[in-house]
Give the backbone structure.
Amino acid sequence: SEYPEKFVKFVSDIREAIGCGDVPFIAGELSENITESWNVGDRPVKFNKMLRELVGVIPNFAVASSTGLTLKEDGVHFNS
């Protein structure tokens, strides 16, 4: 429940550190089809929803969708 607030601060801190308060920030979604062997339940779905809800809250912020991407053999990372 604290993650959205921490994520907003994270983006702000990065922008401050590089001295560019309005630089675009694009966050990539997690795969929602991580293999069951990773035992993460629906956390990727919840995380992606949280990211999308921050669009419009964080200035110059967008989310890159993971929809339709397939996974590498490790069951976590996207393939090219």
Q: What stands out?
A: The mean pLDDT is 89. Strands lie at 25-28, 61-64. The two ends are 33 Å apart (CA to CA).
